[in-house]
Amino acid sequence: MSSKINASGQDSSDQRTVRTPQNENKLSGSIVLFVSIMALFFGAIYSLSFLTLGNPWPMAACLVLFALAFWIPQTIWGRSDSAGEH
């Protein structure tokens, strides 16, 4: 499938490029995103090793890191606003 289309759906070189799932992200960008989000997730799990009944801060750090590990990909880099694109 071509990534260039015009209003009638025919290939054309003078039209703008349409973002499709095949050309949306580069591999290097996806790898960097995956590694950074996994670092947040594993940091959240690692912070639980310091949890004691007298020190609640590791749990607070765990909750914040865990929430960021899900919130960042879904809202900032996510496709949550693309329901009507295709």
TrEMBL record:
<feature type="transmembrane region" description="Helical">
    <location>
        <begin position="31"/>
        <end position="51"/>
    </location>
</feature>
<keyword id="KW-1133">Transmembrane helix</keyword>
<keyword id="KW-0812">Transmembrane</keyword>
<protein>
    <submittedName>
        <fullName>Uncharacterized protein</fullName>
    </submittedName>
</protein>
<feature type="transmembrane region" description="Helical">
    <location>
        <begin position="57"/>
        <end position="77"/>
    </location>
</feature>
<feature type="compositionally biased region" description="Polar residues">
    <location>
        <begin position="1"/>
        <end position="12"/>
    </location>
</feature>
<keyword id="KW-0472">Membrane</keyword>
<feature type="region of interest" description="Disordered">
    <location>
        <begin position="1"/>
        <end position="22"/>
    </location>
</feature>
